[in-house]
Amino acid sequence: MTLADWVAGAARRLAEAGLDDARREARVLAAVGLGLAPGAVLTQGERVLSAEETAPLAAMLARRVAREPLSRIVGRRGFWTLELALSPDTLDPRPDTETLVQAGLDLLPPPAPGKTPCLLDLGTGSGCVLLALLSERPDALGVGVDIAPGAAATAQANARALGLADRVLVVVGDWLTALRGPFDLIVSNPPYIPSADIAGLEPEVRCFDPWRALDGGPDGLAPYRLLAREAPARLTPGGALAVEVGQGQDADVAALLAAAGWREIGVKQDLAGVGRCVVARGRQE
Ligand SMILES: C[S@@+](CC[C@H](N)C(=O)[O-])C[C@H]1O[C@@H](n2cnc3c(N)ncnc32)[C@H](O)[C@@H]1O
User: Is the peptide bond prior to 182 cis by the omega test (within 30 degrees of 0)?
Assistant: First the structure.
């Protein structure tokens, strides 16, 4: 079988499995499985594949037909400027979450001699948000918290692989329970899907992202209520909070922060113009 034959057959099976971009995905699977640059799949179409080459490709194709996301099959995801490892306990980081990174960077005080900004990322998952922030701010230290030990281990491994481990502490914990702070910036992309909506999500999400990374309680807002109540005591005076929100949740989250006494509340939009992130400052004193 040639590479072009394999790609054509894989694209057919992926289309039958309901994937929109089946041909491109088939090419990516072939490139990853054979260790080729994506363009080489097109230029090497006549290459004859050996049985040693087609067996792992078939295994990868079967996983994608079962709607496992490509990033999980490959085990890695590009986020911000970083390349991150994933594990079954981590959410697959989404491009929209880069809005939270930018919001966090905008809220931090500018670098100053003798100052070490301290950041906290609640529900760190792969560590994507925290590590992106630290990669941009070499003067800062960061703590990542996750309730899933496997996620915390992956975040720590990502910190090591990116050369950031000496500025990162990852702990297993339940939100703010074990932490006193104070932090200059708290960021979080908490689970925010209303529990009853999870069953209706795409298979890539409901079958492969961990349930704890999705379930935000009956109305999806439970983690924001907790953060609105408990985060102020862990911030430096004038310290800031930035949280990612689901589509349509920005006004509700802004309102519950306002009710809890937060100041300078604002909404940041993602590239599609969706209110994706709510920012606020804690007490001045
Ligand atoms: C939506 S995911 C975000 C992961 C990562 N920050 C990202 O943006 O890709 C939410 C994360 O919160 C974690 N989590 C859920 N409940 C938690 C809790 N009670 N305390 C700490 N972390 C929690 C989940 O394990 C998951 O990693």
Answer: yes
